[in-house]
Amino acid sequence: MNRPKQSEYNPYFQHYINLVDEGPYLDILDLNTELTAQFFREIPADKHDYRYAPGKWTVKEVLMHITDTERVFAYRTLVCARGDNKTPLHSMDEDLYATHAAVSGRTMESLVEEFLVIRKNSAFLFQNLTEDQSKFVGDGVTHPFTARALGYIMIGHINHHINILNERYL
Length: 170
Description:
This protein has about 170 residues and is mostly helical. The chain contains seven helices and two strands.
């Protein structure tokens, strides 16, 4: 699956796409999966419920946000890949989702495992997309986007949050 053109996504997502290395998409996705699981597993237990400022997410909430967003991006990808340009794909309220995620009683390992299961679902979706399907355009309400753009945004979104965790939490 080729890298998306700028016309295939909202300019807001350029930062995420810039965070994705060059190379074969599925190889990049697999490496991102491994590195993400490893990154969160190596965070010391005393940092799991840490937030760097009042009102900011904890480390575990960040991972749940990544997982929730992966689910949303996978659904959007499916809609685009199936040629559905009539279903409006609204943005999600990430703070609302985080508020209702209830991760404080969960272990980091359970959150990592959930991420891995959801990512495996995404990987199957992308493994079986043709190049033509990856270019199908969906209704992103404020801006159209393609399935392949969503695939790159998925990876860049995680890289973005890992960068923030490294800068502000760890």
